[in-house]
Amino acid sequence: DQQMYGWMRVDEIVRFVAPFYATWDHDLALKYLHEFELPLATKIKHLSKGQNVRLGLVLALAHRPELVILDDPALGLDPVMRKQFNRDLITHLQGEGRTVFYSSHLLYEVEPIADEVAILHEGRLIRQADTETLRRDVKQFVLEQPALATVRDDVALLDLQTAGEDVAVTVENASAVRALLDREGVRYRIVDLNLDEIFTAYVAGVLDGRSPESEPALEAAPQT
Asked: Is 122 a member of any domain?
């Protein structure tokens, strides 16, 4: 939760922050203020939550940083405002060569804007890959329970769930599993996973009473 001097007006805090950065771009700050529709003469304490977040974004970007670190920046905003914030972020950083380190628990909102994803658990990096590679590699296969033995000993299982006579296994090497099942003549159905489901499979999935981070195959997961 960002803290700014509530007694200052929007234009005053911009002038206050500018001298701290040798690379401050006043014209860029004014451009962002205009595009974000921030009232220059309004005191910060009278801004809405969404306006406050946008003002923080102006102050973070106007000095043209090469790296921007955002920790759940849209936390506390309603769903519409969070979506707007992420759209603003992409609009103003895309094509400028900026790197954004965006930490969030709202994975479904990060997914459309993330180029690369790192999954952390208890301070340890479990998997890092570009978003498309992660979606391509991590899939869920639904097959009949007797066919489970075909894949269980040969591939890295992240998660396993039973549903009647079927089992749903989540793997991190989908192309190899598909080739194996085709070769063995096993019938299966592939389910695409979103980032939230992939994160759950890596961090909270349970296989034989063990969490996926303790599964040896996961320890050897390739890092890209």
From this structure: no
Rounded (5°) CA angle 173-176-177: 85
Q: Are residues 16 and 105 in the same domain?
A: yes
**pTM score, two decimals?**
0.70
Q: Are residues 91 and 141 in the same domain?
A: no
What is the 3-state secondary structure of 112-156?
A: CCCCEEEEEECCEEEEEEEHHHHHHHCEEEEEEHHHHHHHHCCCC
Per-residue pLDDT tens, the chain, 224 aa: give them. 467 899 999 999 999 999 999 999 999 999 889 988 899 999 999 998 888 888 988 998 899 888 888 887 777 677 887 777 777 777 777 667 778 888 877 787 778 878 898 888 878 888 899 999 999 999 999 999 888 887 777 777 888 888 788 999 999 889 989 998 999 898 999 999 999 899 888 886 533 444 444 433 322 223 33
Q: Name, in order, each residue with C-beta under 8 angstroms of 215's C-beta and a sequence gap of 6 or more.
A: 156, 157, 158, 207
CA distance 224 to 204: 22
